[in-house]
Design goal:
280 residues; 11 helices; mainly alpha
Length: 280
């Protein structure tokens, strides 16, 4: 296998798209297919995929560092003194919600990428899950309220998601293996459909992204061929661009989502899917 030629512009564009679309409910697959189809860019290999995933992972870790520190402190207290609080309960629910995509990824990732990674599939799923996002947003729970933990504001009737709710969101996340579905899109849709408010749905989706992105990077690392790896400066560029764009995207999305809702993203997805069907 030949090492891909280094195209800095391509690396920056693809890393920026990955960073932004990782946390917005608009499908990274649908956006990554456009520049490649229009320009005929060469595949930059799994090493770049790993680098941009690690960049978005860093962005999530930095943005939610206080939550993660709380999880670590509470886990230590549980191990030392058998004290269990809402941090531990949330961490356990994130773990339960991660199981479906870990199992589905191990079983179905290869056949899905071999048979479903087509423009038609990406376009149809972009439209279908966009409509689902719009429907779920219309039946969402109440807006964030003061006095409840930051990650659970807006959840209906409970301070924390139940294990059943977490598992259902996790099952929805497994659908993100289908190109065009969008990991953020399906988890936010599932949380909204279960009665979460917008802010609560986003925060649970973003926290759930941390183990999901780490797992995706691990799967890619297993499949990567060191002989096709890009030079370290190129990989570092992809990592930095993905991390920076993802970090800015998470902060902006959390700040404005209660005001703009999901309808603009749903409309955008439908238009993007129609454009893919019409021109590709």
């Amino acid at each position: 296998m030949e090492t891909p030629s280094v195209d800095v512009v391509q690396i920056v564009v693809l890393a920026f798209i990955q960073g932004v679309t990782e946390f917005l409910p608009i499908s990274s697959s649908a956006h990554l297919i456009l520049p490649s189809a229009l320009s005929g860019w060469q595949d930059q290999g799994l090493a770049l995929d790993i680098a941009v995933h690690l960049g978005t992972l860093l962005a999530a870790v930095v943005h939610f560092r206080r939550d993660l520190a709380g999880f670590a402190t509470s886990s230590w207290a549980l191990a030392r003194r058998r004290e269990r609080d809402d941090n531990v309960n949330m961490l356990l629910r994130i773990g339960a919600a991660t199981v479906p995509i870990a199992v589905a990824g191990a079983l179905f990732k290869a056949p899905i990428e071999a048979h479903l990674r087509t423009t038609t599939v990406i376009a149809v799923t972009t439209i279908a899950f966009g409509l689902a996002l719009w429907w779920a947003d219309r039946r969402r729970g109440p807006a964030a309220c003061a006095g409840t933990p930051a990650w659970t504001r807006g959840a209906v009737a409970e301070k924390l998601p139940t294990y059943g709710q977490a598992l259902l969101i996790g099952l929805a996340q497994a659908l993100a293996l289908v190109p065009g579905a969008s990991r953020a899109g399906v988890t936010i849709t599932a949380a909204l459909a279960l009665g979460f408010g917008r802010t609560a749905a986003l925060r649970f989706s973003f926290l759930l992204a941390i183990p999901a992105i780490a797992g995706a990077a691990l799967f890619a690392a297993v499949d990567a061929d060191p002989r096709t790896m890009l030079p370290w400066p190129a990989l570092t560029t992809g990592f930095v661009v993905a991390a920076g764009s993802a970090f800015l995207c998470v902060g902006a999305f959390l700040r404005v989502v209660e005001h703009i809702g999901m309808t603009p993203f749903a409309i955008y997805r439908v238009l993007l899917g129609l454009a893919l069907l019409a021109f590709f």
